[in-house]
Structure formats: C-alpha cells, structure tokens
Queue: 2 jobs
Job 1
Amino acid sequence: MAALAQTITPELRRWIVAQAEAGCRPEDVLQAMKTSGWDEDIAAAALEQTLLERLAELRPQATVAPLDAGTPLPEPALETAPTVLVAEGHTVRILTSMRHPRVIVFGGLLTDTECDQLMALSRPRLERSKTVDNATGGDEINASRTSDGMFFERGETELITRIEARIGALLRWPVNHGEGLQILRYRPGAEYRPHHDYFDPVHSGTAKILERGGQRVGTLVMYLNTPEGGGATTFPDVGLEVAPVRGNAVFFSYDRAHPSTRTLHGGAPVTAGEKWVATKWLRQGVFV
Ligand code: PD2
Ligand code: ZN
C-alpha cells in the first residue's frame, strides 16, 4: 500500500470496527494491516484512533450533556432561508446548508484581494503545523497534519480586523470569542486527517486549554485559493465533501464535545498545486 493511501478511510474505519465487533484481538487486526502493507506505527495509531472514536460513539448519549443548555451557538440568520446575507456591508452567498451536522457553505466570504493579502502576509511566517498535545495542552508536531501554518493575533492588522468583524456579524458571535485566525498551506500530498475540532474532555490537557475561553463551538474554514487538484474538506460521518473554492468558506458548529455532533472532518490530500485556508475557531467565552 502506498504511503499516501495510509489514511483512515471510511472503508478502513468500518473494517476495523467490524473486526473489533467480531471479537478479533487488536494485535491480530494490527498484524493484518501490517501484512497488507501498513507501516506498523501508522497502523497502530490508526487502530487506536478508530477504536477510541468508536468507544466514544458507544458511550451512552445521556451522559454527554450539551455544553450549556440554552446557550446559543454561532449561527447565521438563515431563518427566512435567504440566498445572501450582508455582513458589515459585504454580501455573502448561501450555497448549501445541512442540519445535522450543522454545516453551511458560504460563497464569496472573502474577496480575491483579501485572499491574496492573507497569503502574502502569512507566507514568511509559515512553519510546520502543530496540533494540541492532548496530554499536556501544549503544541506538538503531528503526522496527521502535513501542512505549514501560522496564527495571526486577533485584530493584528486592519485586514484581519475587517475579516473578523465580518465573521462576527455573519455568525452572530462576538469577535472576542474567536481565536486568532490560523493560516494553513498544504503542498501536494499534504492533508489533514479526519478529526474533531473540540477539545475532548477525556484528555488530561483539556482543562488547561479550556481556561482560555471554554470549548470550541464552531469552525469556519475559508479557502484562499482553488487547488489544482484535491483538497476538499470532508465530513466522513455523512459523506459530505466541500470543494475548496477561493473566497468560499465552510462553517460547522457543535453543541457538545462529542462525535454524536457528526462533525468529524478532514482536509483531503492535495493532489496538484497548493491549498491555502484560513481557519477561525469560535469559543464559548472570551478567548484570551
Ligand atoms: O483545510 C481543511 O480543509 C481543513 C480540514 C479540517 C481544516 C481544518 N480541519 C481545520 O483547520 O481545523
Ligand atoms: Zn479541523
């Protein structure tokens, strides 16, 4: 099996779960994966992630309370099913919306000039992306995210301030509940394997992370360019793929830190050219 194919596809996930539910021991499943060409470390990590996610799915739903009953989530004003929304004087198209998971695809959220400016401003500051270390709450380099990235401070420049105000108005969520804008650049072959953006309460580092504004409750991924090939944002639980189109964005929200939100999502491998995105994560409270 080629290295590129060593991702947890929905088919592989179903196969691993079926083996486990048929009573196969994890070591036998691992051996079968090695025999079919998987690198041992990658196979072990894939197996662990899949089985932990499955266990979380099987946890009784009643024990997973919503974050704060009655607390609103970030949500655009779609009550009258408009085709466009105007946020801070900027017209945004509503291309697609889905209820569960709550996913909305926006057209024209950023202008071409804004996309170019974000790429130019961030380019000299890109570094190999890190993800949150679940055990400590610190940063770690992670093989499941093969992109380069950086963070802007909230309100760092006039451009960032304008985009953040637009997002706040569009999603009806206070600007100071947002993390700083993150820029990611994926080169050919790079991807972001499926994950949840909330912080899993079972991890020991989560309490420390939550001190800075509580849970994440929503994600907005904005596409700064249109890759020549690949790079869709995928939602494997529901078979949804959002095409990365320059200026467009995909938004999704989650009312609890649990896979039942169906917000598992990933960045599919880029097959040609580069993919650039800007991500805004929204917290329950003021992000400090
Ligand atoms: O670049 C993407 O499509 C993507 C996919 C999954 C970005 C993120 N997650 C993220 O920034 O959280
Ligand atoms: Zn994500």
Job 2
Amino acid sequence: MTIALAIHGGCGTLPKSEMTDAEWAEAKAHLAKSLRAGWAILAKGGSAVDAVEAAVVVMEDSAHFNAGHGAALNADGEHELDASIMDGATLAAGALCAVKRIRNPVTAAKALMRRGDPLLLTGPAGDAFAQAEGLDIVANEHFSTERRRKNLASMKIRELVGTMAGASEAEKHGTVGAVARDQAGHLAAATSTGGYTNKPPGRVGDSPIIGAGTYARDGRCAVSGTGKGEYFIRYCVGHEIASLIGYAGLSLQDAAERAMAELTAHKIGAGLVAIGADGEIVAPYNTGGMYRGWVTPDGLVHVATHADVEVMGQA
Ligand code: ASP
C-alpha cells in the first residue's frame, strides 16, 4: 500500500524580499525536517495519526510558523493556541482551543483523542488536561518571537489609523498542518495554529473545529486548512471536500478546487493540503505563497514557499 504525506506551514507566507536567504533556507529546512519526521513513522509501518502528529510537532517547535513557538499574539499580547487531530479510520478526534501553556498542542489533542471523550477542551481546561497527562508545559512567553511582537505592534498601528485591510497575509496569520496515509491505507489529519495577530481574546478559529480546518475519513480524504478561519467554519471546508468526493463523486482535485473557489469568492487568504484515499496529494492556495511540502512515492522530499518547488533529497 502506498504511504503518503503532505504538510503546510500556512498561507501567510512572507513576500520573498522580507526574509534573508538564510532565513528562507532555514524555513525550508524545517519543512523538510517535518516531512522526514512523519515519513520515518509511515515507512516503518507506523500509523497516519502518529505521522501527522510528528510532522506538526516539528513545525510547532519552529519559530518560522504560526503555531507553538512563533505563534501569533492576540490583542492582549498573549498566545492562545488551537489544535486538532483526526483519525480517518475511526473518525475519532481530539481538539483544544485557546490554550496558553502547552508546548505542543497537537500532542495534547492526540492524547485527548486517545482518551475518547470529550473531543474538544477549551482554555484552562485544556492546559490542565495536558499537565495531568504529563505533557510539556511552558510559560506563555515560550511562544513569542521578535517577528510576532513586531506584527502585533504594526497591527495595533493599522487599527489606530484604519489601514487594517492593507495588512499582508504574513502580518496577519498562518497555521501548520499535515495529512497522511499509512501502509494500512488509513488517513489522518492534524492542524495547529496561533490564529491571527491581534485577534480578540477568546476567539477560536477553524483549526480545532473538526470538519472545518481539520478532517479525515478513510475512503474519502484527509484535509488540513489555513486561512481566514471564520470562512472555513462557515463552509465546513474539510467535511465539504470529503462530501464532494463521497456523495458527488468528485476527484480530490476537483473537490479541493470547488472548496477553494468558494473561499476565494470572499477575497480571503486560504490554502489547504489534502490527501486522497489512494494517497494522491493536492496543495492549493490563493495567496502569494504557502509554506508546504510532500514526499513523493519514491521517497523524495519536496518543499515550497512560493511557486517554485524544491527537491530536498531523500526522506
Ligand atoms: N486558520 C487559522 C485561523 O483562522 C489562521 C490561518 O491559517 O491563517 O485561526
């Protein structure tokens, strides 16, 4: 059975000129590292669930992406993190929203999924759950980076002078996610985010909403989204793509394009990675760039930030 893995690091990719060559190289190296972490699990017969978790953990720990360390700051200058994971074999899922102290929210989401019930925990209850599970707990400042502090300062200025609409995708948001198919043919998806810069405290996006920013169902597809979460929730994007495949008989590519067209009609930034029942991968986006990557069946790591796709050796 073909194994397959795809990741995204958000559609809030910076314009090329805003980072040095060394910074771009590091961001790409972290995408490749994420793919290798997930692929190593799939290659030795591990589960799609474990693979997407491992891939997302690497991006949560990287300062380049808006999840875990490097997450966006809310209007109070704090980080509130959302994450979820779903097992396409059983439709089991786990999710946390607005948590503040869990180093790797996706790992806590998996622990909650394993627990079975409840599916979604919010805020302090999510943090307490992770602590009780013995997971890594950190101070909220662990997630802060210089870039995110600058993003918040510039969004506050934009708010004051009324130029919010002119903010770049990168200033605003981002997310990380992974989708996988394992040797047994099972699918899984995971997503983790800091939301968007200057979001109101308590705001929850699509990433922890099963069926919106994250969805996996064997025989159909696994999907992880990035972009203006409010619209992913309205269109139940992950579930919509699975339904277009399951009920309307669309191909993965056509279903993903249909969902993207509905989002794009609202002039919002959006992107996603999805994997089909047979391991086919799509990674559409409508912004200037999207951090993304996948491994082809021959084991080659592919990574991209803008239009060009770079091959970064064997997984
Ligand atoms: N989807 C995320 C959210 O709305 C943000 C993003 O991916 O840019 O929280």
